[in-house]
Each structure stands twice: as structure tokens, then as C-alpha cells.
Amino acid sequence: MSSTPVDPRRLPDVDALRGFALFGILVVNSSQMMDPYMSEGIREPGAAPWDQFALWLVTALAATKFYLLFSFLFGYSFTLQTDSAERDGARLAPRFLRRSLGLVLLGLVHAVVLFNGDILMTYGLLGLTLLWARRMTPATAAKTAAWTYGVFGAVLTAVGALTLWVDDESASDSRAIADAVAAYRGDPGTVLQANLDRLPDAFLGILVMAPGVLAAFFLGLAAGRRRLLAPGQASRSRLTGITVVGLAVGAPGAIFFASASQGPLDARWQYLGLGVGMLTAPALSAAYACFVLLLLRSSRGARTQRLLAPAGRTALTNYLTQSLVMAFIATAYGLSLYGRLGAAAILTLACALYALQLAASATYARRFRHGPAEWLLRAITMAGRPGKRDRAATPRPT
User: Fold this and answer.
1) Which residues contact 268 (CB under 8 A, 6 or more apart)?
2) Domain boundaries along the sequence of the chain
3) What pTM value is reported for the model?
């Protein structure tokens, strides 16, 4: 059989970072899809020590960090789409508007059928700001990102501090857990109805996440304008410095966030912990990204790229597949294990699924240029069936 080569215009570092970020998205979303306590944002009474530790790790190392990395890459990729439109002699705005519409439609289906914690609608709606900001200089975009996120994090932390003096009212928590368990273990109809009932929360989540997502968009736009992820642009010394500083700033905030959210701190610290965690999350996200880039520039760089980049090239397909698999395991679509597995088991499942996705993506990339979801989104963006050069179809025997 003939093989489909990788598009030479793609940036391997961007694909590898996106493939890496899929893991963090998976472990957070899996916990929210399968654990009613995690989904409701409350602590599970009487959880086993290993489950408490697993949730603590997920909160400290993954929660709030990876959606920022994905958002940064979305902003960076916007500059690549701009370049592509210029090469093709096409107008950027119609293309990007169709792409945004495609993301919103995919996200709406995803939120209603599989998981109401969808991020695609957020990108489709908030991504429109990139059209407005496309003529920003890199310096202006970076300053806008810093001010947007700084004010957001400071306000969230201040509000969290005020809640230290507010009594915790959790009488309805047990009923919310029971209702969620009944719905997701019921039948496919009750699953759909539960997701529909939570759809307003999904739109509220877009508003809550907007400052962080927008700041990451603008930072990605600035980095894309300067081609910081192009081959040979970032030096090892600079990447090492960002990694060290990012860990020094981000790790203490992540530890406090996890300790306030999952213990040992009292539950009244939860909102302050969230504020501090959000305020310091970009530092840890930057440390993660730069560490992966350092690996790509090390003696293991080729191996790391082969491992991560194929998953990153099919990130949309992998993201939707993660939700499909976890929804099958958790809900009445399949095994109805919602609320029946501890956090440690869920984390183990997520790691196993990610390993399978890495292997499957590498195999798939040898034969196809785009994943199915990527092909569909590209067809919407181009307002027609992609050409033979971009087609994600089964190769013909030679």
C-alpha cells in the first residue's frame, strides 16, 4: 500500500506539544466524567487513601494547566492558518469563521451526547477574538495576555480569600450526587437528558474560562508572530530557564491548590486554593511545554517526536475518542460504571487509554494525512471536500 506523507508545512514541535497536552486533558476529563464528586467539585467522604492521593495528583499536576497549553497552541496555530490563507490567495476571515462554526457545532454535539465539559465550543466562540487581534504586534499581544490573566487571577484569588469567612452550605451535595448517579447509570435517554440539563453550565463555563483562554490565545498569537516554535528558534538555555522558573513559581501554587481542594487543608480553603492555583497555573504550563521542547532537542528528540507528534496531528479525533471511550465506560451507553470506580482506577484507565492512543496514532499517521474529525473540520473550513492531497481516505493498493 502507498503511504501518505506528513505535510511538510506542519511544525513538529507544535504537534508534539499538542500530543503531550492530550494526556493532561484526558486525566482531568476522565475524572469529571466518571467521578460524581469530582464533577460536582466536592470531596468524597470516606475515599480510600490511594484514591485521595490520585485525585490530589490530578488536581496538582493537571487541573487548570493543560487547557491553557491547548489554548496557547490554538493561538499559535491561528498564525499558521493566516500564513496558509496567504499562500492560497484566500481570504482569512471567511475561512476562520467557517472553522469556528465547525468547532461550535462539533462541541455542541460533544457536550450533549458525550461530555458537558466540552472545550470546542469555547474555542469556536472565543477564537473569534483572534480575527480582531490579528494585526496586533507581538509585544501588544503579550502585554494583553499578561494583563488579562493577571487581573483574572488576582480577582479570583481575592474572591477565594473572602470565602474563608463564609460558612460552607453543602446540604444539597448528597442529593446532587444521587441525581447524577441515577441519570448516568439509567439509560441512554437519561444520559442525554442529564447532559442537556447541564448545557447551561457548559455555557457558564465558557464565561468563567474566558479570561484564561483569551490570555493564552493572545500569548500564542505573540509566539506565533515571532515563530518561537519553528525549528531552531528557542535555545536550550532559554528553555531551561523557563522550565526552572516555571516550576519554582507553579509548583507551590499547584501544591496549595491540590491541598485546598482535596486535603489535608480544610474545605473552606477550596476557593482560595482555586484562585492561587489559577494564578500560578501558567507558570507550570510553561514549564511543562519547555520541558517537552528540551526533550525534543535532546538525544531522545527523534524518539519523543515519533511518540507524541502523530497524536498531536490528530488531536481533535483523539480528544473526541477519549470522551467516547470514557462515556461508554461510565454511562448507560455501555458499562454504567459512573461513581463505581475510585480515582486511582480512573487514573490507571486514563493512562492506558493514552498509551493506546499514542500507538494507534503512530500507526494511523503512516497511512493517513488527517484524522476523521480533522478531515471534517477542514471540509467545513474550506467549504467543500478537501482535495486529494489532504484527503483522509483509505490509500489504494499499489
Assistant:
1) 163, 164, 166, 168
2) 12-240+247-281+305-384
3) 0.91
373 and 110 Cβ atoms separated by less than 8 Å:
no
Read off the C-alpha cell for 39: 464533577
Give the Cα separation of 139 and 121 in Å (integer): 28
Amino acid at position 383, single letter: A
Cα 73 from chain centroid? 10
pLDDT tens digits for 339-352?
Answer: 999 999 999 999 99
User: d(Cα 59, Cα 259) in Å, to the nearest integer?
Assistant: 9
Question: What residues contact residue 227 under an 8 Å CB cut-off, 6+ apart?
Answer: 233
Rounded CA-CA distance 5/189 in Å is 43
87-128 pLDDT per residue, tens: 888 899 999 999 999 999 999 999 999 999 999 999 999 999
By three-state DSSP, how is residue 178 classified? helix
Collapse the DSSP code of 278 into the 3-class scheme (helix H, G, I; strand E, B; otherwise coil) and give the result: helix
Question: What is the band of 42 on the pLDDT scale with cuts at 50, 70, 90?
Answer: confident
